[in-house]
Amino acid sequence: MVMKLFVVLPLLMAVTTVPAFAQDAAQKPAKTPESADAGFQMSLFTLDTPIETLIADKRSRAVLDKDLPGLSTDENLDKFKAMSLRKFQPMTGGQLTDAMMHKVAKDLAAIQ
Predict the structure, then answer these.
(1) Suppose 109 and one of 43, 47, 65, 80 were both cysteines; which one would form an S-S bond, judging by CB atoms 3.0 to 4.6 Å apart?
(2) Cα gap 24→51, rounded to integer Å
(3) Residue 109 · residue 43 · CB < 8 Å
(4) Distances in Å between the alpha carbon of 5 and those of 9, 14, 15, 78?
(5) Which DSSP string do the residues of 73-111 spell out, in sequence order?
(6) Does the model's pTM come out above 0.85?
(7) pLDDT tens digits for range 51-98
(8) In the chain, count of helices (H) and strands (E)?
(9) Residue 36 has pLDDT above 50, yes or no
(10) Which helix (H) or strand (E) holds 46?
């Protein structure tokens, strides 16, 4: 009898709490772009954007040339251009520092 209680009780709890979660979700309207926080802004380019995409746009290329001189003209560019800066950073042996990444991210976010 005790073993049946341990098996049935969790199932009963799961079944009775699901409708409560569903009601909460149904009562809360989904956020739309219009209702999103006014301070939140989507960036065109991020540290997750492929390097070749950053180089192809003159604005983001200017950021790379300023913050990471030589990256856009590196002789090995073909080997890493499909990667994002975030994926590429660990492969640089510490040459691409967190401070540099932060600066690039900030400057890329300013592009509109």
Answers:
(1) 43
(2) 42
(3) yes
(4) 6, 14, 15, 63
(5) G-TTHHHHTTSBHHHHGGGGTTSS-HHHHHHHHHHHHT-
(6) no
(7) 999 999 999 999 999 999 999 999 999 999 999 999 999 999 999 999
(8) 6, 0
(9) no
(10) none
